Each structure stands twice: as structure tokens, then as C-alpha cells.
Amino acid sequence: MTSSFLATPAPVQAAQGPLQTNAWLMIALPLLGAVVLLLAGRRANGWGHLLGCATVIGSFVYGLALFASVGSGPAHELALYSWIPVNALQVDFGLRIDPLSLVFMLLITGVGSLIHIYSIGYMAHDQQGRSGARNTERRRFFAYLNLFVAAMLILVMGNSFVMLYLGWEGVGLASYLLIGFWQQRPSAAGAATKAFVMNRIGDVGLALAIFLLFAQLGTTQYSEVFARAGELSPGVLLAIALLLLLGACGKSGQVPLQAWLPDAMEGPTPVSALIHAATMVTAGVYLIARANPLYTLSPGGQLAVAVVGAVTLLVGCLIGCAYDDIKKVLAYSTVSQIGYMMLAVGLGPAGYALGIMHLLTHGFFKAGLFLGAGSVMHGMNDEVDMRKFGGLRRYMPITFATFGLGYLALIGFPFLSGYYSKDAIIAAAFGQSGWQGWVFGGVAVLGAALTAFYMTRLMLMTFFGERRWESLRTAGGEKFHPHESPAVMTAPMIVLAIGSVAAGLFFTSGDRLVGFLTPALGELQEGHGALPHLVIQLLTVGFAALGVLAAWMFVGRKRVAVERPQRVSLPVRVARADLYGNAFNRAMVVRPTSWLTRGLVHVDRQGVDGAVNGVAALLGGGSRGLRRWQSGFVRSYALSMLTGGVLLVAAMLTVGAP
Amino acid sequence: MGVTTQTGAVILAQQSIAPPPIHYSAIAPVLIVLGAACLAVLVEAFVPRRLRWSVQVGLSLCTLVAAGAWLVVYARGEPMGLTTLADTLAIDTPTLFLWGTLLVLGLASILLIADRSVEPGGAFVAESSAAPSPSPRAASGGSTGGTATSIAPAPTPAPARATASVAEMRTEVFPLGLFSLGGMMVFCAANDLLTMFIALEALSLPLYVMCGLARRRRLLSQEAAVKYFLLGAFASAFFLYGLALLYGYAGSVELSAIADATAGSLRSDTLLFAGLGLLVVGLLFKGSVGPFHMWTPDVYHGAPTAVTGFMAACTKVAAFGAILRVLHVAFEASSWEWHWVLWTVAVVSMVIGAVLGLTQSDIKRMVAYSSIAHAGFLLIGAITLTDEGLSATLFYLLAYGVTTIAVFGVISLVRTSEGEATHLSAWSGLAKRSPLIAWVFTFLLLALAGIPLTSGFMGKFVVFSAALTAGMAPLVVIALVASAVAAFFYLRVIVLMHFNEPAPDGPTVSVPGAFTTAAITLGVVVTLLLGVLPTPVLDWASVGGFVS
Predict the structure, then answer these.
(1) Coiled-coil region(s) at which residues (chain A) (predicted)?
(2) Chain A partners of B484 at a C-beta cutoff of 8 Å?
């Protein structure tokens, strides 16, 4: 079956018509916005945010027109110019328009437009008391946001792995700039650095995979790579699959590189919604779905993806249960939902399209949840500790309603978005043969229960119960005055809430999305698991209901302490410590690096000097006077050169003239 | 200088033998540069002091432009590779490319060196008596008059300007720079080892002097000069010893003769490999490749920043030009034996540069360690010994050199009243004070880190893919990891500039004069162009190989 799919790869056509040949405009528009905003300086203070929104909305409209004209057909390639032409190495600056990239284009520009609009309100007076500089800050914010949209579009529209890498680095850069946007918070700079380091680890994997593809096939263009994937030996395929997975783990916050994503919540909330929930962090899923012909040929690679996804979804859920910071809970929820997507694309042809579907529905409801959290913070003086909230539903009715719908969608409440997409993944996981079906399916159902638990806990602590903020004061010593956000913020939330409700039904009715994606991802294969579909559905809903019930038992019935209880059971302690993820990183990455650095510095500074001293001592006491006389540095440098030279010549003689 | 010596020796030695044919049109760029250097010495001697600076700057810039124009005209005729001056110089495509690179980088360096607006009176003085005196004198003193009106006036009476001595700038730096540049051009065209050695000395000696000319922190500068001189002499000795052994092996110092000798005879391999090893040590020293890098941080730190830029960019180009030629022409046949050794050297250099760069707290030292890491990447390209690797390395050299000069140009702008603020802590919050400079520097650092759409990415991409095609996969893996580690210390500076609060008594950013602005703009534009539209340059770099 897989071989028949590969024998006739989807034909690739050249782009036709003005709409397709000018598709680069979609990228150029937001990029132009970013450049203008960065160059215009203060002059753009008055209209900068409007320009930022207009370019992204323009890009979205173009995307819609493109979508209408292309539809679900073969891929269209658009070569703009020859970017890297050296001998055998030919990389075009080219775009690929196919169902997969179209879906992403619409997601990025659509959600991007909404979040741009929301940011007008959110960033208007949200400068932590630095009201004097607020407008310049907002301009800069929109410039970065536009830059991000452009880079993300390059990532999904590129027609080769090198183009993907270009966008990959671009979104990384924009993401660091936005995470560290609030410069007055020292933790923001730390979070930006952490994101950078973790991403670099992943990037090395991606770069290696690209070089490996190039060395083996002489091209990195998707159409040629996929057409000739059969020429690769199984070992090379596995290596490429694992390296791409490493890249995906870095960008998408998957185990073991998950720790940067929750810290990235230091950025402004719209950034968390757009970049760290709806779009950028899903780039890893896109990468694996895009490279589906390679994974289809490599069962080992597929299994690795599925295992990473399954582990991550559990880890994310478990940690999410222990946090009190509303954004951190949502962040770990994102980690775990991306785990679901990874699990889905790791199932091979049975799951690629399902992973993308969950990605889209998740884009709606998670962006909506983050915007809702931002709205709550907006009304609560930027407080993020849920223990200080409570009973907010009366004060923020629209936020409560939209957030509530997003919540129901996320926990898989029947007939909302998440129900359709997550259910399909769970069913596909059970559909795997042998032990894999039981393990993956079991993990996915357990994850559904945990998701219901921590999200219900969040809802109860924020919107229900006692109004704990009444007796508290803000950091500035004032009373809390919770209030609903302005229309410019609530309108995008309402749109996203509609998406959270309806997207799932829309995508699944008549297998609309799956059918649409078939030219890019291949036919969706139905699994034949041990359990009938209805049982799985009931099981999922049942487990989710158990989670809600448990949350009610533990949180809803009791008083919530304003102070975080310190004497807690072992599991909670472990979860609060991020399952020791940071400790693991320190032990595995930070400490060896610092040891290596210290060791090298030691050799560089003292070691050479020490060697000199040792040699000098051997030569006799007479050298002591000499040593005092000399400054010490040139001498040791010369000695190190001599040592290096002797070693090099000795090595030459050993290999050359034995 | 090397050329004239050779010609003179040939004429003196024999009357009966006809002088060798000289392709003047091919070597004209070198002749122009060296001739102008001699002229500049005369200017120094005879032109009145107040005119000297403008004459020297005009002469140097005209020279480089003229030599470049000649080079372009000559290269457009698509010349065949040839050897001239009794086969001592080889003028082939790599030579032309390297010359072009050197002239561009030389132009940018001269622009930085010539700037007198950032440091009133220029950054160079000769005698220690001209050390900055604490007595405040206005920056508009008579000695900086004359042509200084063409330069942007000082924006604020910042303490940096008020307390700086305005002792006149020493213009010896221009002839020295031209001599050094001429030496570099001969160095990478030299077709025999003796010429190469003479060129090595011709390029090094002026550099040693230039390092010691700093107006500020003179002790550091002079210490750097002495260190560089002593270690450079030591490295030259290695080179010369290697040369002698190779002469013993092949009976000739010509690269092609050595290649012939390695091809199939039953000579002593000990002489060959010991000679190669010693020769390579001398060359690696100049390219600041670890473990022969020890001088680099100290000298980069101590030398006047404009000279550091010149050294970092041009010396590296010349050194790697020579390494490429020596390995490609003379030692290709024996590469199976020696390539493991240079693999190791490349790894050591990358690891040292990337890891030690992490702990630096001075920006010039950090760039020095970055240059050591880059030297490792360049060495990877140099030891592939394929045409692809050759063109990739040439491209990388141009890309790296241009970016580096612009980096040092920016560094020279960030100052306190003590002179340049090179300590990293002084750079925090720079984006708040002068966003443009911070963004330019960010872009340049991203280029050094190898982020796409910059020349740095393109350079790494072509070098690594050439290495991979040549079957050096393990080296590429290490290189990618090293560049990921190195990217971290560039990021540290970016984070510092953009995300930290500026220190209350932080440095001021000088408004650059026209010359520094031109140099930085050139660097940024070329860095961007090579990242977005590398095609013409890559094409030019890959038209042909070495002749011998």
C-alpha cells in the first residue's frame, strides 16, 4: 500500500494565473509592515498598530482567494529565483501551494489577524506602569508580530527543506524577541535565552537531517525528495526521521526539550496565544506531516514520533495539574495537546490528517483560551495566580462565556471541536496493531481524563467560588477592580469561540478536511482496533467526565487557600517541579557544558602555565629566577604553540611515515 | 615588496639568461598597491603635516579603488590562469577572487582607520608621549581642523570628547596598511614557498607596528604588538624550517615540484610530513586556527579596533588563501595520509572557539574566539580538496571578512570617557539608547551565528555541504554542534542589548563619521546581499581552480 502511494507521487504543477504566481505577496505584506514599523520610528506611533493589522488581514484575504482558486488539487510550485546555485547544489527560493500549506496559511493569517486586532486593546495601556513609553512599545510589538507572521508563512509555504529552515530560524528569532519583550522583567530575558538554547539543540537536528538528505539525494526540494525517497537505505531513512523529530521536539516543546515553552509565557499574552499555542509550536507537527513520505517508509521513525507524543501528552497533563499560574497551566496544556498531534502523525498514514485536524481545532480553542486568560489578567492588574481569582464570571461575562466554550472544546465535550478531533486521534491510536494500540490508546484516554481535571480546576478557581481577590491588594497596594475588556479584545475572543464550537463539526462532516488534505498527505487509513468505535467514544467521554468530577471533588467543594500549600503529597511536589525537567536539563546539558567550559578555560589559562612550571621545575631551580623575570604570558603561549606544533608534526609522521 | 626583491635578484644574478616574461597586466593590482605604499612613505616624509592626513587617506582610497578597477577589468576578460615572474606568482581564478576580497576588505579597513570623528584626532598615535593627557581640550582644536569639516560634527560635548587628547593622528598607519595589504596579495598568489615566506614577512611586519599605535590604553596595545611580534616570529621559524625540510625532500621550493615529488617517488616520507607539519603550523598561526590561536584574543583585545578589523578580516583571507593553495597544489596526492591530522585541528579549533567564547566578558575577546571557531569552519572547507570546497571556502572568506569588519566598526562606536567600552556589561540596554546601532549589531551577530538570509548562513551552508559531499560527515556534525554552541554567545549579546535595562552610567554611542558609516554600511549591505542573492559571487568563486 505504501509503495503504491510512493510510486505515483502527487504530480507537481507550475503555478498558473496571476493569483498563484503572486502568492509571494502573502509573505511580502506582513514583512513590509514589519520593515515600515521598524524604520518609521516614532512617526508610526499613531498608525503603527493599524498598519500591522491591515497587512496581516490583507494577507488573510489573499489566502482566502488563493484557497478558493486552488482548492484541493495537486501541488503548485512557484520558483521565485535561484537562491543557492553551486555546482550540484541547487536551491530555489520557491513556494509550494498545496492543501497542507493552504490550511496552514489560513490558520496563520486568520488567527494572526484576530490576535493582531486583540493586541490593539491589550497592548494599549499594558506597560506595567511605564505609561510614558507605552505607544512606542506597542509599535515595536506589532513590528515583531508582523515579522513573525511573515517568517511563519515562509516556513509553511517554502518548497524545500532549506526554505523551511529559513522560516524555522525566522520564527525562532521573532519568538525570542517577543518572549523578551517586557525587558523590565529579568525572568523574560532568562526565558528568551532558554528558548533559544533548547531550540538550537533542535535546530542542529533539523540542519543535520537537511544535510543528510542533500548528501544522499542531491536535493532538498520536497517534490524530488519524496519522489526519490525509495532510494534511501533504511538506516539513512531512520536517521533522517529521528533527526527531523529532534528538530520538531525543539520547536514544539516535546519531551525532552519541553521546558522552554512554559517559561516562554513571560511574553505578552497575545504572543502566547499566537506563537506559543496556535502556530509556531505546531511547526514540529507540520514538519513531520510534510515529511510524511519519509516517515511512511520508516516504521522505526514513526514509532519514535508516536512515543515522544505519548510521553509528552502525559507529562504535560501531569504538570498542568499542579500549577497555579493560569498561563503556565495553559502552556502545559499546549505541550500535552501537541503531544496528541505528535502521537497522531506518529501513527503514520492512519493519523497524519488527524494530527493536522487537531492542530487546527486546537489553534481555535487554545488561542481563544489564551486570549481569555489575557482578558482576565487585563481586568485583574496582570495577576496570574489563580488562587487570587475566584467568582469572576459575573464581572467578565463575555470572557467567561468564550473561555467556557474553549474549555469545553478542549476537554472534548461532545459535539464541540475538541471532541471530534481528539476522539479521532484516540480511536486511531487504539486502531494500531498489537501492544501499540493498547498503550497509545490507553495513554490518550488517560490524558483526556487529566486534561478534564486540570482545566476544570482552572475554571473553578478562576470563575467560580469565593471572590478571594476582594480581601487582597495588588502589587501596587490597590484594590482589584475586575472589569470586562473592551470590544476590540472581546470580538476576536467571540470569533475564536465560534470556531471552538463549530470547527470540529465543520471539518468532519463528510470527511471534509481529511478529503481536502488527501493530495498532500495520502489516503487516510482506517485502523481496525480491538475496540469498536462507539466503545472508544463512550470511554473517552466517560474518562473526561471522571476528570471533571475529580476536579469538583478536590477543588470545587473546598475553599481554595490563597497561599499555596507547601505541605503536599509527593506526586504534587514532583509535578510542581516540572517532573524534574529543569533538574534533568541542568544535569544533562547545563552542567556538562559548564564543566567543559571550565576545564577548557583551566587548560587555556592555568594548564599551559602549569605545564611550563612543571617543565621549568624539571629543568632545575635556575628557571625560577627566569620565571619571575618574565611576564608569563608570551612564554606560555609560545610553549602551547610548540606543544601543538610538536603534536601536529608527530601526528603527521605517525600517519605519513610510520 | 616581494615582487621587487625577486625581480631585482634575477636581474643581478645573470646577464646571459633572458629575464623572465612578466605579465604586467595580471600583476598590476599588486604593483599598484605596493607602488602606492612607497609613494605614501614619500608623502610622510615631504608633505606638510597639516595636509598629510588628507593626502594619505585620498591616496590609499584611490589606490584600492584603482587596483580594484584594474582587477575587475582584467577579470572580465576571462583570463586563463597563468604563472609569471619566473613561476613565482600564480594568477588564477582563486587568486583573482582573493585579491578582490582583500581589496574590498582593505577598503573597508582603511575607511575605519581613517575615521577621526569618533576619536578626536584619530585612533592612532606613534610616541608614548602622545598618550592622552587629562587636560581637557576642546575637540575643535586646530590640529583636527582642515579636512575634518567634511566629517559629521560632534553631536554633544560628551566627556569622551572633552577629555580626549587631540594630539595629531599619526599617518604612518596608511603606508603600513598598504604594505601589509600588498604582502597579503602576494601571499595568496605565491607559487613557491620562498615567495610565500617573503610575503608572509611583508604582511606581518607592518601589522606588528600597527597593533602598537593605539591612542588609548597604550600599554595594552604595545603589549599586544610585542606578543604578536614574538609569537609571529616563532611561527615564521616553523614555516621556514618546514620550507627547508620540503626543499630537502623535493629539491625545489616550487609547489608544483613538491606535488610532482609526492606523486610517486621513493623519497623520505619523514622529510615530507615533518616539513608539511611545520609549514602548516606557520600558516595555521596566521589564520588563528586553534591550537595555534593563543595570540588571537590578546592581540585583538589590545590592538586599535580598526586594526583589529583589518587583522581579523584581511589576515584571515590571506592565510586561508595560502593554506588552500598549498594544500590543493602541493599536497593533494598525499592527502590520504595527512587529512586526519587536519581534521583533528579543525575540531580542536571549533571546540576551543565555541566553548571558550562562552566565558568571555569582553566583546573584542568574544569576537576573537568567534574567529577561532570560524577558522575551524574554514579549515573544513580547505581540507575537502574539491572544487566545491574551494569555491565554498572562498565565499566563506569574503562573507566572514565583510561581516567582521562591520562588527569592529560598530564596536569602535560604543564608548565611555575612557575610550571604547568593550566590556559586555557596558552594552546592556543599548537598544534603548540607540536602536539603529543595536539592530545593525544584532544583524551582524546573526550573520556570524549563521542565521538564514545572511551571508553567514550561506557560507556555512556551502562549506558544510561541500564537506559532506567529500565524505566528511562526522566533521560536519561537530561543526553544526559547535556553531549551535557559538550561536549562544552571540545571542547573549543580543539579549543584553535588547532585553536588559541600560546601566545608569553606561557608554554613549558616538555618531559615526562619514568613513565609519560607509564601512559599516558596506559591511551590512554585503552581508545581506550575500545572504539573499549569493549567485553572482558564488558563480565567480567557482569558475576555476588553481594553476601551478
Answers:
(1) none
(2) 200-201, 203-204
Is B488 within 8 Å of chain A by CB?
yes
What range defines the domain where residue B347 resides? Answer: 22-129+172-541
- Looking at the predicted complex, does its ipTM rise above 0.90? no
* Strands B414-416 vs B419-420: parallel, antiparallel or unpaired: antiparallel
Angle between helices B387-411 and B514-532 (to 10 degrees): 150
Rounded alpha-carbon distances, angstroms, from residue B403 to A20, A597, B313, B427, B490: 37, 26, 9, 19, 13
For A93, half-sphere exposure in the C-beta direction (CA atoms, 13 angstrom radius) is 18
Cα–Cα distances in angstroms (integers) from residue A111 to residues A25, A51, A53, A316, in the given order: 18, 17, 12, 24
Which of B 47-76 lie inside 8 A of A, CB atoms?
none
Query: How many Cα neighbours within 13 Å face the side chain of A117?
Result: 18
Chain A residues near residue B285 by CB distance under 8 angstroms: 641
Give Cβ neighbours of residue A163 (< 8 Å, ≥ 6 apart): A91, A93, A94, A95, A154, A157
Tell me how far apart the alpha carbons of residues A168 and A154 are, in angstroms, rounded to a whole number: 8
Start-to-end Cα distance in chain B: 22
Q: CA end-to-end span of chain A, whole Å?
A: 57
A361, three cell numbers? 481545532
Q: Could you read off the pLDDT of A542-593 as tens digits, one per residue? A: 988 998 888 888 876 777 666 666 666 666 666 666 666 666 666 666 666 6
Q: Within a domain: residue B148?
A: no
Amino acid at A5: F
Q: With contacts defined as CB-CB under 8 Å, which chain B residues touch A196? A: 487-488, 491
Return the half-sphere exposure (C-beta side, CA atoms, 13 A cut-off) of residue A320.
31
Q: Which of A211, A641, A644 sits opposite B476 (nearest CB)?
A: A211
Residue among A88, A211, A633 whose CB faces B464 most closely = A211
Domain ranges of chain A: 313-569, 577-627, 632-658
Q: Does A545 touch chain B (CB under 8 A)?
A: no
Residue of B nearest to A172 (CA): B451
Give the A window 586-605 contacts with B, CB below 8 Å.
593, 596-597, 600-601, 604
Give the B window 181-220 contacts with A, CB below 8 Å: none
When CB atoms are compared, the residue of B269, B468, B501 closest to A183 is B501
The share of chain A scoring above pLDDT 90, in percent, equals: 20
CA–CA–CA angle B462, B466, B469 (5° rounding) = 140
Question: What is the tally of structural domains in chain B?
Answer: 1
Helices (H), A480-532: 487-508, 512-521
Give the CA count within 13 Å in the CB-facing half-sphere of A643: 18
Separation in Å, CA of B337 to nearest CA in chain A:
5
* Cell numbers placing B59: 591616496
* Cis peptide bond upstream of B435, omega within 30: no
Q: What local confidence, expressed as pLDDT, does residue A478 receive?
A: 76
Q: Which residue of A has its CA nearest to B442?
A: A173
On whether residue B111 sits in a domain, the answer given is yes
Distance CA A202, CA A243 (A): 8
- Classify residue B140: in a domain, yes or no: no
Partner B contacted by A207 (CB < 8 A): yes
∠ CA(B520), CA(B525), CA(B529), 5° rounding?
Answer: 150
* A252/chain B closest Cα distance in angstroms: 18
| B476: closest CA of chain A, how far (Å) | 8
User: Could you report the per-residue pLDDT of A226-274, keeping only the tens digit for each?
Assistant: 888 888 888 899 999 999 999 999 888 888 888 888 888 878 888 888 8
